[in-house]
């Protein structure tokens, strides 16, 4: 593979990314002096980075070639990370794949026919914003699917299954409950309650997929409910017109790395950024942040978690929206937190709260 760095500007392509500069210099066996004064052909490194980002076979081949020539093993992911650190603007060609479930379909834009996120639309989905003000995306496709169907509304008057309307199915369930109560048949009552729960869910305008999810959830469902919900062939349900959208979203790794971790102590560069910015912001007490982050002289203990720091910022600025905007302004582009399935384990998949829609690129809609 031709060396794409000999004419690329190190200052333009790798400013502030010293660790990866050293790694890539090692990978490509290029002394820093060879590219420190170069000034042209910047596009070559962009193409190289794109190849490393998007083509697993190219990464594998390049890693094997490097290992054979240098007698030093290297993982394909190391090749990708180092190469991408040189891409113009940072690591913008690859990153975390996330998902967003919504009852809406975004309007196309000039930049993307699939549309883009809009901060002005915050609150038109679930609306809870429990982990900060921003756009929510999930690392787990199942979590995003859950929100897609949970938030999508159906018209029960249009729903038909097996030649019967939703109203007829619900009426049958109530009659079955009456019969079970009269006869004292507990098995029949369990069956009747399961059927009633399903069709009452339809009348609550819940999507069949969301009802099925609840029925199979250990906390919300029970065996008879799950059995009935799983017996429904959803492909044969008619009248489900609005099933929302399921979007695939790319978020660059460099943005994720700079996010506030909701579940962990805030330390390092992120803590320093917050304290430095607090000193320049009217209405904030820098001492509060130095104490909370363990940066004061007399501090003993563990720095506060991201959730506590976000609440402190929000309290100082009088709103979550202002807190998110303030963090974005100071190069902290979002929040990351473990989803419900992972939170107790403190590992697994995460959700992201994006303060800036520009850091997310929608790549697919289902």
Mean pLDDT, nearest integer?
Answer: 76
Helix content: 40-55%
Total E-strand runs: 9
What portion of residues belong to β-strands? 5-15%
Oligomer: single chain
Radius of gyration based on Cα positions: 26 Å
Shape: elongated
Query: What's the SSE pattern?
Result: HHHHHHEEHEEHHHHEHEHHHHEEE
**Number of helices, where a helix is a run of at least 4 consecutive DSSP H or I residues:** 16
**Main pleated-sheet profile:** 4 strands, mixed
Give start-end ranges of low-pLDDT stretches.
Answer: 1-46, 84-94
What topology, given as strand order, has the largest sheet?
2-8-7-6
- Look at the helices and sheets and give the structural class: alpha+beta
Distance between the termini: 38 Å
Describe the structure.
Strands 2-8-7-6 form a 4-stranded mixed sheet. The protein has a 3-stranded antiparallel sheet with strand order 1-5-9. A two-stranded antiparallel ribbon has the order 3-4. It has 16 helices and 9 strands. With 366 residues, it is an alpha+beta fold. The longest helix is centred in the middle third of the chain and has 18 residues, at 166-183. It is elongated. The two termini are 38 Å apart. The chain has helices at 10-14, 18-28, 33-36, 42-54, 56-70, 76-85, 141-151, 166-183, 186-203, 208-216, 223-231, 253-257, 268-279, 286-292, 306-317, 320-329; strands at 95-102, 135-138, 160-161, 164-165, 245-252, 260-261, 334-338, 350-354, 360-365.
